[in-house]
Amino acid sequence: MKKNVLIVVSTILFFLAAWTMVMAETYLPGKSLTGIVNWGNGKAYFLNGNRYIRYDMTTDKADPGYPKPINAETWPGVIWTDGVDDVVNWGNGKAYFFKGNQYIRYDIKADKADPDYPKPINAETWPGVVWTDGIDAVVNWGNGKAYFFKGNQYIRYDIKADKADPDYPKPINAETWPGVIWTDGIDGAVNWGNGKVYFFKGNQYIRYDIKADKADPDYPKPINAETWPGIIW
């Protein structure tokens, strides 16, 4: 009798362990990530909801021990522990976190947010970014320009001049973003630093060639354990 009880208990523990492993691989809430950023040190961060994953760009897989929660210990000064809309590395030692109509400037070397943030997105803080109620995605193109996306439109921003270029926003279409088929908008984008930019929407992604100024062939592709090891939701 005792032997049978031990077998039953062992079986239950086995399935609980298996269930825990499955849950660890599907931790991210929702159907799409909310932020991706190249940290400039061989690591990228994928954020979704109140958690994040650190991704090793050299080994092309998520680091062990992730996901981790967004909190005062992991991201000092990023008060939005329930999640952000997007993050961008500005290329000057600072990163910007966006949520709703506000943003936070983060000091990469100090590994904490600068004082007196968050601040509002407005004509003074982000000249020419007309979407003061928030953005969907932003990516540093690596040529002195950054692109802000919201819905079916985008704005090109001059980093040195610290203002949007004239005649924006413009629509996302086959002429402005060849091969980016999601003309109704994207969830996130990240410059991988190797001449490619990745656009994400839902459970798919598109690789974009900066020099050719068009998406690579055979995209979009699914986000899964093969294409993005450790980034599963």
Walk me through this protein's architecture:
This protein is mainly β. It has one domain (31-222): Hemopexin-like domain (Hemopexin), CATH 2.110.10.10. Helices cover 10% and strands 34% of the residues. It has one helix spanning 2-25; strands spanning 35-38, 43-48, 51-56, 61-62, 68-69, 86-89, 94-99, 102-107, 112-113, 119-120, 137-140, 145-150, 153-158, 163-164, 170-171, 188-191, 196-201, 204-209, 214-215, 221-222. Strands 1, 2, 3, 4 and 5 form a five-stranded antiparallel sheet that branches. Strands 6, 7, 8, 9 and 10 form a five-stranded antiparallel sheet that branches. Strands 11, 12, 13, 14 and 15 form a five-stranded antiparallel sheet that branches. A hairpin with a 4-residue loop joins strand 1 (35-38) and strand 2. The longest helix has 24 residues, at 2-25. The chain is globular and about 45 Å long. The protein starts with a helix and ends in an 11-residue tail after the last strand. The model is unreliable at 5-31 (pLDDT under 50).
Helix proportion: 10-25%
CATH superfamily: Hemopexin-like domain
CATH class: Mainly Beta
Percent in strands: 25-35%
CATH level-two architecture: 4 Propeller
| Total domain modules | 1
Order of helices and strands: HEEEEEEEEEEEEEEEEEEEE
Provide the residue-averaged pLDDT: 89
For the report, how would you describe the main beta sheet?
Answer: 5 strands, antiparallel
- SS-based class: mainly beta
- Unreliable stretches: 5-31
